[in-house]
Amino acid sequence: MSKIFKKYTRITTKTLTEMKSRGEKISMLTAYDFTLAGIIDKAGIDVILVGDSASNVMAGHETTLPITLDQMIYHASSVIRGVNRALVVVDLPFGSYQADSKEALRSSIRIMKESGAHAVKLEGGSQIKGSIERILQAGIPVMGHLGLTPQSIYKFGTYTVRAKQEEEAEQLINDAKMLEKVGCFSIVLEKVPAKLAEKISKKISIPVIGIGAGRNVDGQVLVIHDMLGMSKEFNPRFLRRYSDLNQIITDAVSKYSTEVKSEDFPNKEEQY
User: Phi and psi at residue 187, in whole multiples of 5°?
Assistant: First the structure.
């Protein structure tokens, strides 16, 4: 029997807290452009993340590190213009907040002012506490991100599951509690053991949104290009593909090219 949930005309940070308290799971996807953002917003997604994964799926970089603050603002501005209901969260890119809290605040203000976004997301725990506090003091909502933090990939040296050892798991729990205490409205947990993610979700009052963190958290997030089957190279265990747009687009473009060359397109009805 399907559950009946309250219908929200506009999702806010407060809405997400209400959803957790009601036991309603939060749906979240990435978007980087006006057209796709409009489609997934109309489809009823709760949160749209303008992720620094744009560095991978939009720009073709191996990691998320190369994308700049200006580029993130461009993507966020495009997304905002296509959205009416979802909460839009924007990643602070690598190098725009790590140096000091003043830089973190300046970067966050630029994102909010220039793109019209609703919140920012930062990777890390206790090491960036001061930056998070400074951003929050300016009235900017912050989403945390713990576990596998892709901006630190060269430190980790691998994309493997994090916090499998007791010491790292304990640090993750402490960081999650800290993010809640300083005022973050939600946390993304990436690639951590499902039991640990569930434990954290139960220990804190703010929503925990997982990617590769099991089913017993408060919501799920995936990269739109992965979920729709546009990219085929990325095949982690946690990914479920809901379509095969790679093949669909390939077939459509191939048919178009063939019909142009055979002069089947355009026909008499498709000209003036």
Answer: -135, 135
Q: Which of 110, 104, 111 is nearest to 135 (CA)?
A: 104
Q: Is the pLDDT at 1 greater than 70, yes or no?
A: no
Residue 50 DSSP SS3: strand
The closest alpha carbon to 212, from 231, 186, 237, 195, belongs to 237
Question: Which residue numbers are catalytic?
Answer: 190
Q: Which domains does the chain have, with CATH numbers?
A: 13-241 (3.20.20.60), 244-272 (no CATH)
CA distance 169 to 175: 10
Instruction: Using the Cα atoms of residue 183, residue 50, residue 29 and residue 127 in order, give the sign of their dihedral.
Output: negative
Question: Which pLDDT score is estimated for 155?
Answer: 83
Provide CB contacts within 8 A for 268, sequence distance 6+: none
pTM summary value = 0.95
In angstroms, the CA 21 to CA 258 distance is 55
